[in-house]
Amino acid sequence: MTAGTFLKHFSPERTTLLALVLGATMICGLPLLLLFKTGLFHDGTVDPGPLLEALQSRSVLRALWHSIESSFFSALAATVLGTGLALLIGLSDVRAKGLLVFLILLPMMIPPHVTAIAWVQALGPASPVLRWLDLAPEPGSTHPLYSREGLVLLLTLQHSPLVFLLVRAALRSFPRELSDAARISGAGTFRMLRRITLPLLAPSLLAGFALAFVAALGNFGINALIGIPARYTTLPVLVWRRLASFGPDVLPNVAVISVLLALVALAAILIQSFLQRRMRASLIGLPQSPLAISLGRSRPVVEVLLWLFVACVLLLPAASLLATSLVRTYGLPLSVETLTLENFREVLWRQSVTLRAFANSTVIAGCAAVIIALVSLLLGYLLAHRQKGHRLWAGLALSQSEIAFAVPGLVMSIAFILTFIRPLPVIGISLYGTLWIILIAYVSVFLAVGLKPVAAAFLQMDGALEDAARVSGAGFFRRIRKIFAPLAAPSAASGAILVFLTAYNEITVSALLWSTGNETIGTTIFNYEDGGYTTLAAAMSVVVVAATVAVMVGMNALAGRVPAGTVPWKD
Question: How many CB atoms lie within 10 A of CB 295?
C-alpha cells in the first residue's frame, strides 16, 4: 500500500467516524452487551435458566407486574392529559400561551424524587399548608399517596409534559389547509378533531404513550419514595434494594432482573415502531400556524380551569416544600414561632456533603453537556453525509445511543458497574466508585437527547454547502469549524441545555454509581429523605427547584437575543 492510499483510507473524516463509532460502542453498546451476557449466557452459550428462575420468584414476578401496571396506566393517563393540554393551547384562542407552555413543561425539568417529596409533604397529615388551612388528614392516618393510585398519579403528572411537547410539535407541523377545508365543509370543532386532527396525530400519540411508558418503567425516585411505603415494589426499586443490601456480590442476580426490565422497555419501543409505521400518513403542504379556534363565551371558564390546574400541579407542592423547609421539625405547623432558615444554612454552608454534591453535579452535568454537543456536531454531519458508508456507520453509533437512552437508567447503571468494576486493561485504573463513571454514564444515556436536534438540523442543510466547501479546498475540520458548526450551533446548544438540566437533577442513573465523596444532588436529596431528614431534603429541594426555574427563566429572557431553536422549549 502506497503512502497516498494509506492516507486516503485514514483521512481525518474516516478517522473521526471510526473514533465516534468505537466511542459509542465502548460507552453504549459494550455495557449493554456485558449486561445481557451476564444475565443470559453461561459458558459461552445462551442459558435462559437464570431468567426463567427469576420469573418464578414471587418477588420478581410481583415487581414486574407492578412495573408494567403502573407504567401502562400512568402512560395512558399522561397521554390523555398531555394531548388535551396540547390541543387546548395549540388550537384554541386562550391567552398567555407562552407562559402556560412554560409552566406546563416545568414539572418535566424538576427531578422525580423532588416531585415525590413535594407531593408527600403537600397532602400528608403533617402538611404545613393543609394544617394552616385546617384541611390536613387526621394525624396517624395513612398518607393518601402511599398506594398504587398515588404512584400512578405522580408518574402521570411527571410525564404528561413529554406527551404535551410531542403533540404540540406535531400540531405545528400540520398543513393548515386540512383544518381550513374541514371548517369550510361545515365541520364543527369536535367533528374536526375526531375525524381529522386526532387520526393524523395517531403516530405522535403512540410515540408519546411509548415515551411516557418507558420513562415510568425506569423511574426510580417516585417508585422508591411512594412505592416503598405503599409496599408496591417495582423492578427498579427491587434492583436498588438488593444491590444496596448485599453489594457487588449480587451483581449476577440483579443483572438478570435488569435484563428483564430492559427487555420490557425494548419490547415497548419495538411495538411502538411497528404500529407507527402502519399508522403513518403522508401530509402535503407546508406547516403553518394552526387554527386559533374561538372558544367564545366559554373562554374565561376554560382559562380559569387551566390556571387552576397549573396552580394545583405547581403551587400546592411547591408551597408545601417551602413550608417544610422553613420549620424546625417536620410536622410542626408553619407560624412565626416555628419559622427558621436553619435548614438552608445547614445544607448551603455547614453540610460538606451538600456542597460537594452541588459541585459534583454542576461539573459532571456541564462536562456531559459540552461533550455531547461536540460529539453531536461531528456525528450529525456524518449522519447527513453523501457517502452511504459514512451514513451507515454513523447510524450504528446513533442506534446504540438511542438504545442506551430507551433502556431504563438503573439498567444502564448495572451495565456500567459490570463494565468498569474491574480495572481498565493496560492502564490498570478502576473507574468504579469514582466521579468518572457517572460522567461516562451521563454521556452514554443522554447522548441521544443532544444528538436528535443536531441530526435534524444537518438533514435540513443544502448539499451545495458541502460541494462549495470542497471545491474551495476546505478540509474536513475546516468545513466543520467554518460552515457546519455555526449553522448547527443553535440545535447543539438546545440539546446541551436539555442534557444539563436533565443530568443536573437526575437520580436514576447515579443511584447505584455514587460513592462517598462522589455524591450528586439527586442522591443527596434522596438519602436525606430516606434517612428521615425531611426538612433538610425539603431545603435542598427548594434550592434545586429555584436554580432550575432560574435557569429556565434566564434562557427565556435570552430567547430573543439568540438564534431560533437555541432554547428548547421556545418555538
Answer: 16
Instruction: Tell me the pTM.
Output: 0.85
CA distances 472 to 283, 341, 353, 466, 467, Å, are 39, 64, 55, 10, 9
What is the per-residue pLDDT across 464-514, written as a single tens digit (0 to 9) for each?
777 777 777 777 788 888 888 888 888 888 889 889 988 998 888 898 898
| Whole-Å CA distances, 206 to 110, 200, 398 | 24, 11, 22
Q: Within 13 Å and on the Cβ side, how many CA atoms surround 275?
A: 15
CB-side neighbour CA atoms (13 Å) of 102: 17
How far apart (Å, rounded) are the C-alpha atoms in residues 566 and 261? Answer: 35
Helix (H) or strand (E) holding 487: helix 485-505
* DSSP run (H or E) holding 42: strand 41-42
CA gap 112, 297 in Å, rounded? 38
Distance CA 94, CA 147 (A): 36
First to last CA, the chain: 53
- Predicted pLDDT of residue 416: 92
- Over residues 134-161, the mean pLDDT reads 87
CB atoms within 10 A of CB 502: 20
Buried b (16+ CB within 10 A) or exposed e, 91-109: bbebeeeeebbbbbbbbbb
pLDDT at 175: 61
- What's the pLDDT tens digit per position in 389-402? 677 888 888 888 88
Short-list 548, 559, 495, CA closest to 521: 548
